[in-house]
Automatic annotation (TrEMBL):
GO terms for molecular function: penicillin binding. GO terms for cellular component: plasma membrane. This is Cell division protein FtsI (Penicillin-binding protein 3). Its main location: membrane. Keywords: Cell cycle, Cell division, Membrane, Transmembrane, Transmembrane helix. Residues 312-321 have a biased composition (Polar residues).
Length: 611
């Protein structure tokens, strides 16, 4: 039997090395791929872990929400609100969440809410009625956001009630930021004093102080905003126990003023009345006590802070500090007080008042012919004689009179926390023109603001001690700690004896023999002075129109209050006694009663006016 031939193995033996090489190549390729994955894994979990975690956390946290600080209140001396902030809400949206609003995937077993639309259109349809917006506008705003934009402001200044309506809709991706609305309970009565808010100069949406105390004390009132961030689900819901970060806001301080809200309101009403009656350009009133505390600081025209349409920038100025004017005869108080203090005159000093008085290159005259030209110094002030004032004032050197003008505060800012205050103009004697040496004696050729003018009379009322005018009593921090304002500076202008003598002489001004009988107040002794000065017009660089004023104190036997009324460019009557005197009487009568100041008990001063 024949043996079968043996099987050939050579081909298998030849294929072995090739298979091994292929296997090794595949193994090497796998190892390379695994090493790449491993390297990437090391990079992700090692070197880049913190950075990637931060990016992921930022994505989950979304946009940082601002916690707006409340602006501090402004209150009067009795704690009555003059300016405050009420809560409002700014509604913000996360477009990346709203894009999928009310949508369900094919594998999601939950049914879609059929009564609601989907996406931007569905969310906008629900939000628009509450926001008072057009749904199409909301959709356009949301659609304009980029793929990664997670923050879009939909509405600002909503009431808390409106925000609660939006919350009830339970729309994922909708949140709110707390903001505020500034309100002014006194309206126009204190608008030029308290001020208003306006856009920030840096172009941000933040409102900052634009005038008045709101501007000057903006840093103290504004406070510091905080912020909040927290982890959210893709649907915009906060993740319980997730990472969160919160920096609380710090509200602004509350300012306590020396102002009395009722006196401020009364002054504003009186000024509006006199401006309309006399067809004046403006009117200003200052009410202060003899210690320099300002109880009212009003000017008209004023601005309604809730309706500023058509109001210009100058409408927000408080003319009591921003408007310089030549004071006229009210400045004679400084001249005659200086003469008394220097001992060159006394109330009984005799003067013969001629129709004309030649000094330098000019002939001076009085506004009216004196019925008796033989006047005492008391008669000079009662009749407001320019000539008599020159005759008394020239007994002093120009340098001496200038020194007293400075002592009474002329040429220096009062230091009140109000923007745009003028220091006025008080020339140095070496710079006088030929006639200015004499005109400054009766209040022409120099300028002051209304608070400076009122402060002169407060100094006389305070027995010759000048106290720096005050408007700010102090402030309260958000935690309730009260800090009083620094005490005002004090300086002596004249002696107590000189101040008492001036008060006695100024009583004659409101007598039947004086220029302001209309300023008398039944039951009270009044000491004051009229002013009727030519008014300098910056536009024509000439004198045009008049400044009518009356400044006085009461009770003259024990002065407590000073009221200054200045009427600029009145048309129907321009004398201080007839234009400003009745307003002084109205305001002083109200203030005396409101502050329960008892009537005078002393007899009127009886200084001789003629010789």
């Amino acid at each position: 039997m024949a043996q079968a031939p043996a099987r050939r193995r050579a081909p298998q033996a030849a294929a072995g090395p090739r298979a091994d090489r292929r296997l090794r190549a595949w193994v090497l390729a796998v190892l390379i791929v695994l090493s790449l994955f491993g390297g990437r894994l090391v990079q992700l979990q090692g070197m880049d872990a913190s950075e990637l975690a931060a990016v992921a956390l930022q994505t989950r946290q979304g946009q940082q929400l601002t916690l707006h600080a409340d602006r501090g209140d402004i209150v009067d001396a009795n704690g009555v609100l003059l300016a405050t902030s009420v809560e409002r809400r700014d509604v913000v949206a996360d477009p990346t969440v709203l894009r999928d609003f009310n949508k369900r995937s094919a594998t999601d077993p939950r049914p879609r809410t059929k009564e609601r639309g989907v996406g931007f259109e569905g969310a906008a349809a629900l939000l628009a009625p509450v926001l008072g917006a057009d749904p199409a506008v909301l959709v356009e705003k949301l659609a304009a956001a980029g793929e990664k934009d997670r923050y879009e402001v939909l509405a600002k200044g909503l009431t808390p009630e409106a925000w609660r309506e939006i919350q009830a809709l339970r729309i994922p991706g909708i949140a709110s930021e707390r903001s505020s609305l500034r309100v002014y309970p006194t309206g126009p009565a204190a608008s030029t004093l308290v001020g208003v808010l306006g856009p920030s100069p840096d172009g941000t949406s933040e409102l900052v102080g634009a005038s008045g105390l709101e501007l000057k004390l903006d840093d103290r009132l504004r406070g510091v905003d905080g912020f909040e961030r927290y982890e959210r689900t893709p649907q915009g819901q906060q993740i319980p126990l997730g990472v969160s970060e919160r920096q609380p806001e710090v509200d602004g301080d509350t300012l306590h003023l020396t102002i009395d809200r009722d006196l401020q309101w009364k002054a504003q009403q009186a000024l509006r009345g006199v401006r309309e009656q006399t067809q004046a350009q403006s009117a200003t009133a200052v009410i202060m006590d003899k210690q320099g505390k300002i109880l009212a600081l009003a000017s008209d025209p004023s601005v309604d802070p809730t309706n500023r349409a058509g109001a210009s920038g100058t409408s927000f100025n408080n003319t009591a500090v921003t408007e310089p004017f030549e004071p006229g005869s009210t400045a004679k108080v400084v001249t005659l007080a200086a003469g008394l203090e220097e001992g060159v005159v006394d109330p009984a000093s005799r003067f013969t008042i001629e129709a004309r008085l030649k000094r330098s290159t000019k002939e001076f005259k009085d506004s009216h012919v004196a019925k008796n030209p033989q006047m005492t110094l008391a008669g000079v002030i009662a009749q407001s004689s320019n000539i008599g004032t020159i005759l008394a004032g020239e007994r002093m050197s120009a340098e001496t009179l200038h020194e007293y003008q400075r002592k009474f505060g002329f040429g220096e800012k009062t230091g009140l926390p109000l923007p745009g205050e003028t220091r006025g103009i008080v020339a140095e004697p070496d710079d006088y023109s030929g006639t200015q040496r004499y005109t400054v004696m009766f209040g022409q050729g120099l300028s002051v603001n209304a608070v400076q003018a009122a402060s002169v009379f407060a100094t006389i009322a305070n027995d010759g001690v000048r106290v720096q005018p005050q408007l700010l009593q102090g402030w309260t921090t958000p935690r309730g700690g009260y800090t009083p304002a620094p005490p005002p500076e004090e300086s002596r202008a004249v002696s107590a004896a000189t101040a008492r003598t001036m008060r006695d002489m100024l009583q004659a001004v409101v007598s039947e023999e004086g220029t302001a009988a209309m300023a008398q107040i039944p039951g009270y002794l009044v000491a004051g002075k009229t002013g009727t000065a030519q008014r300098y017009n910056d536009e024509c660089r000439c004198y045009s129109g008049y400044t009518a004023s009356f400044i006085g104190m009461a009770p003259a036997d024990d002065p407590q209050l000073v009221v200054a009324v200045i009427v600029q460019d009145p048309k129907t009557t321009y004398y201080g006694g007839s234009a400003a005197g009745p307003v002084f009487k109205e305001l002083m009568t109200y203030a005396l009663a409101q502050r329960k100041i008892p009537p005078s008990t002393a007899a009127p001063a009886t200084l001789p006016l003629y010789w």
